[in-house]
Amino acid sequence: MPDIILNGPEGRLEGRYFHNPTPNAPIALMLHPHPQHGGTMNNKIVYTMFNSFKAQGFSVLRFNFRGVGRSQGTFDDGEGELSDAASALDWLQSVNANASQCWVSGFSFGAWISMQLLMRRPEIDGFVSIAPPANMFDFSFLAPCPSSGLIVQGERDDVVPESATAKLVDKLNSQKGIEIDYRIEPTAGHFFENEMEIIDSHIQDYVSRNLIPAEE
Predict the structure, then answer these.
(1) Cα dihedral sign for 61, 46, 117, 179?
(2) What three-state secondary structure class fits 14?
(3) Whether 23 contacts 216, CB under 8 Å
């Protein structure tokens, strides 16, 4: 899993990339939680997401937002981080020009950024959001939501109440042609401390049922 350096809007962005050698393999971008609360691309949920998509045959990229690790720049309240994500997706697409599909996945703050990216990049075919912070950030931009996806939420989350996420899911599911697969883990908190295998299982199950096979 090579370390890579991308050109971002504020300088270099540090990343980790796995390349699937299968022709036309799908691609997926992973986004980490809040930089000001210890979020990095090595967060264990982000690492689990990365490996889940890898196991499903994707070329996968995770990276540090500006000001995290070896990434240059400073925290920019989400606006700059969205630009970082767009640059990372540009790089991922540049080395996988014939990818059969494009997915984005994020945890907490990263889920919020990923769904903004979803709105701006029509080539994104699907998404996975873990504990999207529906009580902290405005998700009204998802009108209409351009893609169906998976949302996983812990019922014992004391950072993002399950009720807030459920309200977001209901709003998205009311939109024509959109189906949100909403999975609630009854014993999980915000950080899914002992549930990495459960997250992996949910992602692989959902992706395997919704991925269009690449054409040789």
Answers:
(1) positive
(2) strand
(3) yes
